[in-house]
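Translate sequence into structure tokens.
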Amino acid sequence: MKTYCIYRCLLNTLCGIWLLLLPSDATSQSLVSIKKESQNEPSFSASTKDFPESKTKNNYFSNEKYGFELHKQRKFTKIPFLLQANLILVPLSINNSDTLWFILDTGVNAIILTDSAVINKLKMPFVREMKLQGIGEGSDVEAGITLGNTIRMGEMIGYKQNVLVIKNNAVQLGEYVGVPIHGVWGFDLFDRFVVTIDFANQEILLQEPDSYSSKREKGERFPISIEKSKPYFVGLQVESDKESKPLKLLIDTGANHALFLEKPDASLLQMPDKVINTQLGRGLNGIIHGKLGRIKKMKVGSYEINDLIASFPDTTRHKGANNNRQGAIGCELLRRFKVTFNYRENYVLLKPLKKTLKEAFEYNMSGMELVARGKDYRSFVVDNIIEGSPAYIAGIKEGDLIIAINKTIAKEILISDVYKMLQKGEGKSIELVLQRKGQLLVKSFRLERII
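Result follows.
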């Protein structure tokens, strides 16, 4: 590895790749319907037709272009995105591929392809193969690196880019989001452009840093530090029911939680008295276990955010944890603002979305976690049950297949639609038709706020 400095320290970033299972009702229109509309002329285009094909066919070590730019020297461009399960999905292409859907993640400084079928189709050769270790309980995963790739996203193009490929589809992010996910990327985009994430209109605005100026109407300005390619808030005041402390928090668009706090010690915020044990999500190496609890208050500049749900991972299984940080803010909180990142000037702008900012932070009130399987991600399987929860008391078990929910056929909806039903309306009745070992069962319960 030491021979290839062009790898740009990819391995140092992989410990941050994980997905928390806290789907919100802030989900977008169906990805499936968009893909159908886009088969002829994509509305969310990673189109290649306006770019010179010769740029992808030159030797990697030639004097051709390298890095990211906007087509025809534009000063800015807008990229529509999907917000699915509180994750930002952007459309891009690799080497003139069909449109691929990547999670936009500030916590990752590599272009990571998790769908190995894509590399098989594009015949991208590996220059090196390796095993990777990250967050989660499973074994290491196999990966390879390809060089000299062309990345396109709307009017943005990246020349001579390295792509890290997770082999054998070892990371199945689509199962937790309920739509196809082909990969994860982030740092290169944020490092090269001023990036505004407009959650209200589901658009990303890329602007040339030299032509950008921050104004008061664009939002309140907060200093950030960029450390190992990741952005951090320093000194955000977080208050539990026991104490209040300033914390250093990663700004993580690749996580769909509101607030993630490292396991408490003497220097960190203590866990609230009432917590539940659950699966927090999926890491590079498997499931992440931990606790969920409510945090009384977080102060972000002039904004006071109350009654947040915080995740506390079990750090004995949290391989790759960053000892310099004390937690992270994810998209369940960020989506309540219009967010502008300016890495070059080391600041973030936050402009509140007034209606969204007032929304309560809620967690799945059934106590059952699901995964979406099958070719179209429309087979919903119970993956975990919280002991003592409504689903547990109703006799629902891990491995049960949901056939229908409240008389709606499961194959007609997305997993995000199911979570919308389970996340609002305490006391609402839920009736499930399940399949267990070839038998059909009917189970019912009422939603209850378990945290």
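Note: Confidence is low (pLDDT under 50) at residues 1-63, 316-321.
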